[in-house]
Design brief:
Blueprint lengths: L17 H14 L4 H18 L4 E2 L9 E2 L3 H11 L3 H9 E6 L2 E6 L1 H32 L24 H21 L2
Antiparallel strand pairs: 1-2, 3-4
Length: about 190
């Protein structure tokens, strides 16, 4: 399972046809003229996000000067790095340290356990944000037409949902709602 998606305890809903919904998604992407390469890239980045979420930092005992963390589960680190097209050591360094350049000298400071988790989650959120923006741009390109340049649209957003225990899925829903709301404010209000 994936850490970002397994918190609800619900893995299957009898009334939901996952395979049918996935097929519908692929057909919609095809109708929107999203290339097969772009579709594969979107799914690849989504897979990378899921694999990032499975990385759990451990205390780095080799660094005795400060609290340090690293990702020591080699297969999980290798999978996430492979999905992102980077070397595992580079991913580990990027997520567990803060890079500073002072007078042309580069130094890396350890972030500790919490900072390393925050970096991992920040990267996952940024990747998801970029996928979302990419897909919105592709949809807008497919739907734009001089024939419909003067049109009126209504967007009704239910608002930011808050539950006692928010998880990754809810963050994605709230993120999408916020982006739609911001888009409507920028483009539809005088």
């Amino acid at each position: 399972g994936f850490s970002y998606t397994n918190h609800s305890g619900c893995y299957q809903v009898d009334t939901v046809d996952d395979a049918g919904n996935f097929s519908t998604l692929l057909k919609a992407m095809e109708r929107l003229k999203i290339s097969n390469d772009d579709v594969q890239s979107v799914f690849g980045v989504l897979a990378a996000i899921l694999h990032l979420g499975n990385l759990e930092p451990v205390r780095d005992t080799s660094n005795t000067l400060q609290e340090a963390a690293k990702f020591s589960d080699a297969p999980k680190l290798e999978m996430a790095a492979k999905m992102l097209g980077v070397k595992p050591a580079d991913l580990n360094l990027a997520l567990s340290t803060k890079k500073r350049t002072i007078l042309n000298e580069v130094t890396h400071s350890a972030l500790g356990m919490e900072g390393t988790r925050e970096n991992r989650d920040a990267l996952a959120k940024e990747l998801y944000s970029r996928i979302f923006s990419f897909l919105v741009d592709k949809i807008n390109q497919a739907l734009s037409s001089p024939k419909y340049s003067n049109s009126i649209g209504v967007l009704d957003i239910f608002g930011f949902e808050i539950y006692e225990d928010n998880k990754f899925e809810q963050m994605c829903i709230n993120f999408a709602n916020e982006n739609c709301n911001n888009f409507s404010i920028i483009h539809f209000q005088a």
